[in-house]
Task: inverse folding
């Protein structure tokens, strides 16, 4: 082993965690999880106990961040050398959103197991265990796969069990509170580098289930959008005002329940009239197809799943005016 004096400059540990977070977009929480579980880098400790990273560590972590954002899981990447990560990023940067890497089989089983564990934690009212499992899954699977294979179907499972009387409103509220925390953490982590257009996310009046909106907000943040999340059951004039004040490129509406609201068509028309020109309207959720005619009448677009959300956001970002 070479002495510190013989190391190349790029190998010298000199950067604290805050510098690593700024350069890679990774939160200190994710860094610790990746180091402890997968040993992706091995920082040294200063005399005061501060973790210090080299330029080579930061480069490796940046490649890992980019590749996990593309759909690979950290478990697939952790054993690769920095040179192999560099080649993978350059030559085959990973699947686009909605496509799984060729080695996704084990991760599919891991996602199934994680959903089962999460459901047990919800049934037992164990919020701490639920948050721990979900955060671990986001780290190990990567954000795109975690959202699509774990959280989206988990929220559907919760809704079905609630409607069937197998879960109470208290179960749903506990799950929503924890999911909000986890997705807020994902958004904050992603938005350390977000410089893209702005998306306002909300549910319109009488739509009180916000799980779908939380998923869209996290997916948009992972795409580099600036997200203004407003929550559930909001008057459309307030949604439009938020879009105007933030200079939003689009508004995303989550429609889960009810699916037979006769007033929603009028609400959507009022929203369209109040929005600034050029602001796109995206609508998703299990109830969205029931309002297809109303959504089409205001020039909106139905996005049936997270891959469709990402596709729509990329198209809108490509036509968004540059930020001043």
Result:
């Amino acid at each position: 082993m070479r002495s510190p004096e013989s190391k190349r400059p790029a190998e010298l540990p000199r950067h604290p965690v805050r510098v690593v977070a700024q350069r890679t977009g990774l939160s200190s929480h994710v860094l610790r999880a990746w180091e402890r579980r997968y040993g992706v880098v091995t920082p040294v400790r200063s005399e005061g106990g501060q973790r210090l990273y080299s330029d080579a560590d930061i480069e490796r972590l940046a490649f890992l961040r980019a590749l996990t954002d593309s759909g690979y899981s950290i478990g697939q990447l952790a054993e690769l050398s920095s040179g192999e990560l560099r080649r993978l990023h350059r030559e085959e940067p990973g699947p686009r959103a909605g496509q799984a890497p060729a080695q996704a089989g084990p991760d599919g089983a891991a996602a199934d197991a994680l959903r089962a564990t999460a459901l047990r934690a919800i049934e037992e009212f164990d919020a701490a265990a639920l948050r721990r499992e979900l955060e671990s899954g986001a780290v190990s699977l990567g954000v795109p796969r975690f959202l699509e294979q774990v959280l989206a179907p988990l929220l559907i499972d919760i809704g079905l069990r609630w409607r069937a009387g197998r879960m109470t409103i208290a179960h749903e509220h506990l799950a929503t509170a924890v999911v909000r925390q986890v997705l807020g953490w994902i958004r904050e982590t992603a938005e350390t580098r977000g410089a893209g257009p702005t998306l306002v996310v909300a549910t319109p009046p009488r739509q009180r289930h916000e799980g779908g909106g939380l998923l869209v907000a996290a997916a948009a943040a992972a795409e580099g959008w600036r997200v203004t999340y407003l929550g559930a059951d909001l008057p459309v004039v307030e949604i439009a005002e938020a879009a105007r004040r933030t200079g939003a490129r689009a508004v995303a509406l989550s429609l889960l329940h009810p699916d037979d609201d006769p007033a929603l068509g009028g609400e959507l028309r009022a929203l369209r009239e109040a929005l600034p020109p050029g602001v796109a309207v995206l609508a998703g959720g299990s109830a969205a197809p029931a309002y297809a005619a109303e959504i089409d009448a205001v020039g909106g677009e139905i996005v049936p799943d997270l891959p469709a959300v990402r596709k729509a956001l990329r198209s809108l970002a490509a036509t968004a005016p540059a930020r001043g």
User: Anything to note?
Assistant: Residues 169-190 form the longest helix (22 residues). The two ends are 50 Å apart (CA to CA). Confidence is low (pLDDT under 50) at residues 93-106.
